[in-house]
Write a structure and sequence with these properties.
With 306 residues, this protein is of the alpha/beta class. Helix content is 18%, strand content 35%. It is globular, with a radius of gyration of 18 Å.
Length: 306
């Protein structure tokens, strides 16, 4: 297990690559509610107005649709160095050793592959942006909440994030779904069965009312609602998941549980439709199947351009 001082402390951003770059870029700014803060060639960076992260989503134009990378923060440059040493000692290859980072906010970081071949970035010292205080009822994301990943061997994947990056298990749903946290948020990562691939990226709204306003706004814009609105039992989050024009699955969520680290005990829930959606209302949008079936990510073990 990574020492406490070297652990991942938060999820920073997710990077996606896709052929329909301009279509997706327009959708994220005009419909989803993020703001474009930089555009460099075939890469665009988007911030959430309520977050101090310089960006929470990176889009890149590519011939293949893939998960480019997931970025996490640690507390210091020394923690970045320690992470590099620990990963190398455990036999996990680095894509690039600790160095100064390009892109909005800069920082100091490394890139590596996880145990399944996904590209990770671990960084510190990123310059924060001035978060805007959202207006009451404003229906745009306040921040990036979590990433859901598919894995054919969930326990192996979970073991990597626990032992190498210091994540803690919050809850299991049978042996099918595992929720992992790196701070007091119930989960920043979730692992689901399936071939190694991205399931979805979820963005948190400040409350349920603003989430539902956002759902209504997207429906009026004829965005495809795949599943929801509903409420997950594990983590308590209200959710609504959409299919973007470029084929990504993104979610609006609200009221995610916060964990008291000293007293939290993971629950193993018995799988059932009520655990997935305790309201039973998610069928209004459809079901997870409407969002598509996972296929192996073509970007595994292939580092994206910096």
């Amino acid at each position: 297990m990574a020492p406490v001082e070297d652990r991942i402390v938060r999820l920073r951003y997710v990077g996606l690559a896709l052929p329909d770059f301009e279509l997706e870029r327009s959708f994220i700014a005009a419909n989803w509610g993020l703001v474009e803060v930089a555009h460099q060639g075939d890469v665009a960076y988007f911030a959430a107005e309520g977050s101090s992260e310089p960006y929470v989503l990176r889009l890149r134009k590519s011939d293949q649709k893939r998960l480019d990378l997931i970025s996490f923060a640690v507390g210091s440059d020394a923690a970045v160095e320690s992470q590099a040493e620990r990963l190398l000692a455990a036999g996990y290859p680095l894509i690039c050793r600790p160095q100064r980072l390009d892109g909005p906010g800069g920082g100091y970081g490394l890139r590596c592959f996880d145990i399944d071949g996904r590209t990770l970035e671990i960084s510190s010292g990123v310059t924060k942006r001035a978060a805007r205080r959202l207006k009451r009822g404003e229906s745009i994301p306040a921040t990036l909440s979590h990433i859901a990943l598919h894995s054919p061997d969930i326990r192996k994947s979970v073991g990597f994030y626990q032992s190498q990056l210091g994540f803690r298990v919050s809850d299991w749903v049978g042996c099918l779904t595992c929720y992992l946290r790196c701070n007091d948020l119930h989960h920043s990562l979730a692992f689901l069965p399936g071939p190694v691939s991205l399931g979805r990226a979820a963005f948190e709204m400040r409350d349920l009312n603003e989430m539902m306003r956002g759902v209504g706004r997207l429906l009026q814009d004829n965005v495809v609602l795949g599943w929801g609105p509903g409420r997950h039992c594990a983590g308590n989050s209200a959710f609504a998941y959409f299919k973007t024009p470029g084929g990504s699955v993104l979610g609006y969520i609200a009221e995610v549980e916060r964990v008291a680290e000293a007293t939290w005990t993971p629950t193993v829930y018995t799988p059932s439709p009520q655990i997935d959606d305790e309201w039973g209302s998610g069928v209004l949008g459809g079901s997870p199947r409407k969002l598509g079936y996972p296929v192996v990510d073509p970007g595994l073990w292939v580092a994206p351009p910096c």
